[in-house]
Design brief:
It is a single chain. The chain is mainly α. It has two domains: about 130 residues, no CATH class; about 80 residues, no CATH class. The chain is built from nine helices and six strands; from the N terminus they run ββααααβαβααβαβα. The strands form three sheets. Strands 1-2 form a two-stranded antiparallel ribbon. It has a two-stranded antiparallel ribbon with strand order 3-6. Strands 4-5 form a two-stranded parallel ribbon. A hairpin with a 2-residue loop joins strand 1 and strand 2. The longest helix is centred in the middle third of the chain and has 24 residues.
Length: about 260
């Protein structure tokens, strides 16, 4: 815990370092992401672990660490599904999380984050937005304001988009039948356009899937995590800036003082 004029920051920096040290990875090469986006964990046929307790202990400690590290929530959730009979593949994936923590041991949680994503929740939100579109269209018609463009409704769930496009209902969506009729009917009448959201704008994906390094760090930057152990830099001086731009700034400042 660290106190400052801006408030209190809570982190598990020492706990994270102890975890890395316990598994002998203090000198390991850091990983840019906690999970490989090309790997889908499942109950494979690789060699089972001789000591599954070590895997369970590691995952248990990672679960405790997620209270201040939302960036490892998805990877930890995936690993916790194989506590009964972990294999070497699962262990290597768990150790990758440690490699990631080695590069980022001091992030702190600035605000609470809740992740909720399901086909039903996404589709009901889509149906609600459709009804709002319909109400707005009636209101504008009463005010004699014509539509110039068809409104666009974005949906961040591929499953929900599939339900709209497919009129065949199945067991998982039987309770959504009324909402399905509403959204599909309004879409066919041209009330709106329904488009997917690009992966680069899916900020909640960091909690629901393994991402490539570029998308992972893009989403991570939106969580407003603060590394209170990162050494401060000189104000106004960016280490990644080209030297030429630094010279321009220095010259500009000198000219300003000379002019004044």
């Amino acid at each position: 815990m660290a106190h400052s004029n801006k408030g209190i920051s809570i982190c598990q920096h020492k706990y994270c370092l102890d975890l890395i040290k316990e598994f002998g990875l203090m000198g390991c090469k850091p990983s840019s992401t906690p999970m490989d986006d090309s790997m889908h964990l499942h109950q494979d046929s690789s060699e089972p672990l001789n000591d599954p307790l070590s895997y369970r202990r590691l995952v248990g400690r990672l679960i405790y660490l997620t209270s201040t590290r939302p960036d490892i929530v998805f990877a930890t959730q995936q690993l916790s599904q194989f506590m009964l009979a972990p294999t070497q593949t699962h262990l290597q994936s768990a150790l990758r999380v440690i490699h990631y923590l080695k590069g980022y041991p001091g992030k702190a949680k600035k605000q609470s984050t809740i992740s909720r994503s399901s086909t039903e929740a996404e589709y009901r939100a889509l149906a609600f937005a459709t009804c709002e579109f319909q109400w707005l269209s009636f209101l504008l018609a009463d005010l004699r304001i014509p539509f110039t463009k068809c409104p666009v409704l974005y949906c961040d769930s591929q499953s929900a988009l599939y339900i709209v496009a497919n009129p065949v209902f199945h067991e998982r969506t039987k309770l959504l039948e009324i909402d399905c009729h509403v959204v599909r009917e309004k879409l066919l009448t041209g009330l709106m356009h329904l488009l997917p959201v690009s992966s680069s704008h899916q900020l909640a994906d960091i909690f629901t899937k393994a991402l490539s390094p570029r998308l992972f760090h893009l989403n991570l930057s939106k969580l407003e995590l603060l590394d209170i152990f990162k050494p401060p830099t000189c104000e106004g001086l960016n280490e990644e800036e080209p030297k030429a731009s630094r010279i321009v700034k220095t010259t500009t400042s000198a000219q300003f003082y000379n002019n004044t």
